[in-house]
Write a structure and sequence with these properties.
Structural class of chain A: alpha/beta
Oligomer: heterodimer
Number of strands of chain B: 0
CATH class of chain B: Mainly Alpha
Radius of gyration of chain B: 20 Å
CATH class of chain A: Alpha Beta
Helix content of chain B: over 70%
CATH topology of chain A: Rossmann fold
Largest sheet of chain B: none
Order of helices and strands of chain B: HHHHHHHHHHHHHH
CATH superfamily of chain A: P-loop containing nucleotide triphosphate hydrolases
Largest sheet of chain A: 6 strands, mixed
CATH superfamily of chain B: ABC transporter involved in vitamin B12 uptake, BtuC
């Protein structure tokens, strides 16, 4: 591939009924990096997430995944290239961790060969090892803490063995210890496995700290800025994205936004 | 350590399955022997397979059809309830409550009264009626997503509409066609081997389909977007499983009429005993449903002997009580 973009979004339009969310949005999301989509409530960052993960259909424009048009990739084919961890996941309380992680192999399940089963096992073990949940494998989901559950969902996505991973607000509803655990895991996935990560985050400082690239959307669904966090996070950009004046300070080689 | 849990849960499943199957076998013999004629196992065996025995022949013609129908209807309704609960992700879903059963019943009543020569195809008509009722409830309840409460309320409305229509139709034609009345009243006293064959065709087909789709039912317990993310067209899966569930209910309703609560209670009890994995839950619930229905029918035959109380009446009394107990119980769990 001559260009280094994972997703290319060209002239994207989207509306819910009469409510237009995106008007001619153009955007490229780089390969092999951690990209975070930032924006206020209702700016359409979740909508963008759902469009890129084929849960919603764009009303206009084109989206390319590694040069291939998104709506021409079948769901199963897509699930072999892109794994997604959604928000508010539910599972039956009595399902075992390893059973849930094994669901990640479903996109490959109709190959029906013995070696593919062996490969499935390998991928499931690997996913549990990376996320540090191997010792929890025989526990029921019901018995897990919020942070452990989130890691199980990430493990299920990793079992798909994709190059691209989407995460929709992976730290919401977790206390700060688990938030950091999850974000460090995400960084590891990117650095050690070279995965392309695309996520939506609420916390600006976490986005600054754990992303290579930030995409900031205005409340109208327009692209305000895109680039490395240090370039993007500035008073005027924050004002346009969130509609409030926020001070920033430099500490420990990081720019920190004062959100109080 | 790693394997003990798995082995134990698989073991638990086998034990509960075995216990239930044995109980069902005993119940079967009790049912065969309930009434004025009593048969030993040896006499039954001889009469069925060796030589003619007038007592065995009478039991074969009168009791066997209703016993087999009870077994199949119970298994079918319980499986249908399990599928509906999976599809709608709603533990309150029941073919009776959803209006599907009464839609199927009304179509069966119409077909029986208007084209009696097509008797063997009545389940096909009731399938159409069941689908109609289900589509109406599903469409009206759909507001961007499915609200469990709306489904239940609309189901109650559709249920009472079709139930009333069937009752009205039954009242005006019961003098001439007793089959219509038997469907409306859920009475299986006068069922024949012909009914057994019709029900066997529809329910065996449906039960096999239900077992085949158990993996899908497991997936439907996850969020739709999660399932889609695994490459599954979740809307199609949901529609297919719904169709199978409606098919199960329809075949059964065409023969035995509307039976409430069985499709609700059996999966609940099944989940408590074998858990929510549908690969275990569906077969277990079938057996449990068969047991409950046959028990209801046999009790109905003996409680007020020589009068009979139909299985569907017993089911709605016992099922109503069981439902309240289950609600109390789950309330206590969530209240902790």
């Amino acid at each position: 591939m001559e260009n280094n973009d994972c997703f290319e979004i060209r002239h994207l339009n989207f509306s819910y009924g009469n409510k237009q969310i995106f008007r001619d949005l153009n955007l490229s999301l780089p390969q092999g990096k951690i990209t975070t989509i930032l924006g206020g409530n209702g700016c359409g960052k979740s909508t963008l997430f759902q469009i890129l993960t084929k849960n919603l259909k764009a009303t206009g424009g084109k989206i390319f995944l590694n040069g291939q048009q998104l709506d021409q990739i079948g769901l199963k084919q897509f699930a072999r290239k892109v794994a997604i961890v959604h928000q508010n996941n539910t599972a039956p309380g009595d399902i075992l961790v390893e059973q849930l992680v094994a669901y990640g192999r479903i996109p490959f399940s109709y190959l029906g060969k013995a070696e593919s089963r062996e490969n499935d096992e390998k991928m499931i073990e690997r996913a549990m090892k990376i996320t540090g949940i191997t010792s929890l494998r025989k526990k029921t989901v019901y018995a897990l803490s919020g942070g452990q559950r989130q890691r199980v969902w990430i493990a299920m996505a990793l079992a798909q063995g994709t190059k691209v991973l989407f995460l929709d607000e992976p730290t919401t509803f977790l206390d700060v210890r688990y938030q950091l655990q999850i974000l460090r895991l995400v960084r590891q996935l990117n650095e050690k496995l070279g995965m392309t990560i695309i996520m939506v985050l609420h916390d600006i400082n976490q986005a600054v700290n754990y992303s290579d690239e930030i995409v900031a959307l205005s409340p109208q669904g327009d692209l305000v800025a895109q680039g490395v966090p240090e370039d993007v996070i500035s008073k005027p950009v924050l004002k346009r994205v969130y509609g409030v004046e926020l001070e920033t300070v430099e500490a420990q080689e990081h720019r920190i936004v004062l959100t109080i | 350590m790693r394997h003990t849990v798995k082995v134990r849960s698989a073991g638990m499943f086998c034990v509960s399955f075995g216990v239930l199957a044995t109980a069902l076998l005993f119940l079967f013999f009790a049912a065969v022997n309930t009434g004025s004629i009593h048969l030993g196992i040896a006499q039954l065996w001889n009469g069925l397979f060796v030589e003619y025995d007038p007592d065995v022949a009478a039991v074969y013609d009168l009791r066997f059809p209703r016993i087999l129908i009870s077994l199949m209807a119970g298994a079918t309704l319980a499986a249908a309830g399990t599928l509906f609960q999976a599809v709608l992700r709603n533990p309150l879903a029941d073919p009776g409550i959803l209006g599907v059963a009464s839609g199927a019943e009304f179509a069966a009543v119409l077909a029986t009264a208007l084209v009696p020569q097509l008797y063997s195809f009545v389940p096909a008509f009731s399938f159409l009626g069941g689908i109609l009722a289900f589509v109406v409830v599903y469409r009206l309840a759909w507001t961007g997503s499915l609200s469990p409460l709306r489904i239940i309320l609309l189901g109650v409305a559709v249920q009472s509409l079709f139930g009333g229509l069937s009752a009205a139709f039954g009242a005006t034609s019961s003098g001439t066609t007793s089959t219509v009345a038997s469907i409306v009243n859920g009475n299986i006293t006068m069922k024949t081997w012909q009914d057994v064959r019709i029900l066997a065709f529809f329910s065996l087909l449906g039960l096999i389909l239900a077992i085949v789709c158990s993996r899908w039912c497991n997936l439907l317990a996850l969020e739709d977007k999660t399932v889609r993310g695994l490459g599954i067209q979740v809307d199609k899966v949901r529609m297919l499983v719904s169709l199978i569930a409606v098919f199960l209910v329809s075949g059964c309703t065409a023969i035995v009429g509307t039976v409430s609560f069985l499709g609700l209670i059996a999966p609940h009890i099944g989940r408590i005993i074998v858990g929510s994995d549908h690969r275990k839950l569906i077969p277990f619930t079938m057996l449990l449903g068969a047991f409950c229905f046959l028990l209801a029918d046999t009790l109905g035959r003996s409680i007020a002997y020589p009068y009979e109380i139909s299985a569907s009446i017993i089911m709605s009394v016992a099922g109503g009580i069981a439902f309240v107990i289950l609600l109390q119980r789950s309330g206590m769990i969530h209240g902790k």
